[in-house]
UniProtKB/TrEMBL annotation:
Signal peptide: none
Membrane topology: Multi-pass membrane protein
Name recorded for this polypeptide: Amino acid permease
Keyword line: Cell membrane, Membrane, Transmembrane, Transmembrane helix, Transport
Location in or out of the cell: Cell membrane
Domain of life: Bacteria
Entry annotated with the keyword Disulfide bond: no
Keyword Thylakoid: no
Gene3D superfamilies, alphabetized: Amino acid/polyamine transporter I
Membrane spanning residue stretches: 12-32, 39-58, 132-150, 162-183, 203-227, 239-262, 296-321, 341-363, 369-393, 414-434, 446-466, 486-504, 524-544
Length: 551
């Protein structure tokens, strides 16, 4: 038996650190918040890293140590502290909140490939919103196939993507500061004084805090892999501490380096989508390397976002179905293939990802869709992170019931209030983050984004109420739906998607020809699609409510 255990493959803590690094922070995350706040984001990062990232990571470390034999991550933590139903609901909400994050990662892969093949942003101007949505959908299918046939693809992609991202980021910061010295201290951000780093604490600033939290959360996604470590009680906290150190360096020095090349007072509108490419192009030109660094970054970003998408697809689906109450989770979602992958969970992930993409197809262009998805992540992802601090408060409230080899803050009362503090900060930031960003306030598209923000949250979280009823159908009839019901509902959903994409394409063409006419058709098309979607939902409900017959 000892010989067999010695041959078992374990995840080392450096590999887990790189996997977590892929889900937590990257140069793009710094770019997003630099566009939101400018150079004052340097101060914001310092505050957030000291008072949020470090305690947050160490709290996750203690939770992972307490529940080191559980496979569901956050859902297991809540289930272990507050019962089976809240464990299921946490699994669903966390999984649902990860959907926009996965869509955003798939979007980034398309952007990365466009830059890698053309060396410019021309690809983005040649693609319609509908084609962008279809390519994003294709990314999900491709990665499901890869994970199905290559069982270690996620670890390989995480090692390559996370390692390359760390190297490229370190190189960027180093070259930026060397270039600053070479130019005699010249910066694009002028005038640059200490006041440049002081945030303006107005309403816009507070509505962007949620995006900072979104950029910094995610390390709990690797919690399901704690059982794959040789010494999880010591190695998992070690990986979290290493992650916190890497995050502090990247955010603070990376943001300052961006201010060397971009004027903080006049930031390009597409910085979130293309900023990393612009800056590597400028660094390459500064050092006489042409577009070499741009292409190297493009392929680094391809691997990094591929690793992120792979981790998200696998980890968040495992979190949904692993160690979740059998009373609430349908059997067909728990089904796994020969490699242990939850294939039906992947399919549900792709379906809801398509829904998210369809919500944004009426936005003006690809850049607006990209920015909206980021802001949507800044709403629901921090909101679900509240479960982490809630669970941490419960284990500190009952330390005898939840012993751990690793403890963050020895004093239980102090630990409890630390968790409560982060819970309140995250909850308030989530509420403020619902206001649309990167668009003219109170314009037509501002209201449209506000509406689809609310719809996305309601649908993604509310859909979890349907799964227990499907599980009850399985208990009553032996199966949830017959093959005929599945085929009919699938055909209706696919037909609805094709209908939505067609009208989105027509609306974008009209916007490109006559703006006022496009605005009129925008409202008409939205109403038409809402009616069509309601009809599709009604048909699916009527088909699904019937008693299933044996396949």
């Amino acid at each position: 038996m000892e010989e067999l255990n010695s041959k078992k493959k374990y995840l080392s803590w450096p590999v887990l650190t790189l996997m977590a690094f892929c889900t937590v922070i990257g140069l793009d995350d710094i770019m997003y918040n630099f566009q939101n706040q400018g150079m004052p984001v340097v101060t914001s990062w310092i505050i957030m890293c000291l008072f949020y990232v470090i305690p947050y990571s160490l709290m996750v470390g203690q939770l992972g140590s307490v529940f080191n034999n559980e496979g569901g991550g956050l859902s297991s933590w809540v289930r272990g502290t507050n019962g089976e139903f809240l464990g299921y609901f946490t699994a669903w909400t966390y999984w649902a909140a990860s959907i926009p994050y996965a869509v955003d990662s798939a979007n980034e892969i398309i952007v990365d490939i466009g830059w890698a093949l053309t060396g410019s942003e021309k690809f983005q101007s040649q693609i319609s919103n509908a084609k962008f949505a279809l390519l994003t959908f294709a990314m999900f299918i491709i990665f499901i196939i890869i994970e199905h046939y290559f069982s270690h693809s996620m670890e390989i992609l995480s090692t390559i993507g996370g390692g390359l991202m760390l190297i490229m980021t370190l190189m960027f910061v180093l070259l930026a500061f060397l270039g600053l010295a070479k130019s005699g201290g010249h910066m694009a951000t002028q005038p640059f004084t200490w006041h440049t780093l002081v945030p303006n604490f107005n309403m816009h600033y507070w509505t962007t805090i949620a995006m900072l939290i979104f950029a910094l959360n995610g390390c709990e996604l690797v919690a399901p892999y704690v059982t794959k470590m040789k010494q999880p009680k010591s190695d998992f906290p070690k990986a979290m501490v290493a992650l916190a150190v890497m995050t502090i360096f990247l955010t603070v020095f990376g943001s300052f380096a961006l201010g060397i090349y971009f004027d903080s007072y006049h930031i390009p509108n597409d910085l979130k989508m293309n900023g990393a490419y612009y800056v590597f192009d400028m660094v390459g030109q500064q050092y006489g390397l042409g577009k070499t660094l741009l292409y190297v970054w493009a392929w680094t970003s391809v691997f990094y976002n591929a690793a992120l998408l792979a981790v998200l697809l696998d980890a968040m689906t495992r979190m949904l179905i692993s160690d979740t109450g059998d009373k609430y989770m349908p059997r067909f979602l728990q089904k796994k293939d020969q490699n242990g992958l939850p294939i039906n969970g992947y399919i549900l992930t792709v379906a809801l990802s398509a829904f998210i993409m369809l919500l944004g197809i009426f936005l003006p262009d690809m850049n607006d869709i990209f920015n909206w998805l980021l802001n949507l992540n800044g709403i629901i992802s921090p909101g679900v992170t509240c479960w982490i601090f809630y669970s941490f408060m419960q284990i500190r409230k009952n330390p005898q019931k939840f012993p751990a080899d690793y403890v963050f803050l020895k004093n239980d009362r102090l630990g409890y209030w630390a968790g409560f503090f982060l819970l309140i900060v995250t909850a308030v930031a989530t509420i403020l983050g619902i206001a649309p960003q990167d668009i003219k306030q109170f314009s037509g598209y501002w209201w449209y984004e506000l509406i689809i923000n609310i719809i996305a949250v309601v649908v993604l979280i509310g859909l979890g109420a349907i799964l227990p009823s499907i599980r009850r159908r399985e208990e009553r009839y032996g199966l949830a739906f017959s093959r005929g019901q599945w085929v009919t509902m699938l055909a209706v959903v696919c037909g609805s998607i094709v209908f939505d994409l067609y009208f989105a394409e027509q609306n974008q063409l009209l916007n490109g020809q006559v703006l006022s006419l496009g605005q009129v058709h925008l409202g008409l098309n939205i109403i038409l699609i809402m009616v069509e979607n309601l009809i599709a939902i009604l048909i699916c409900w009527l088909v699904g409510k019937r008693k299933p017959t044996a396949n």
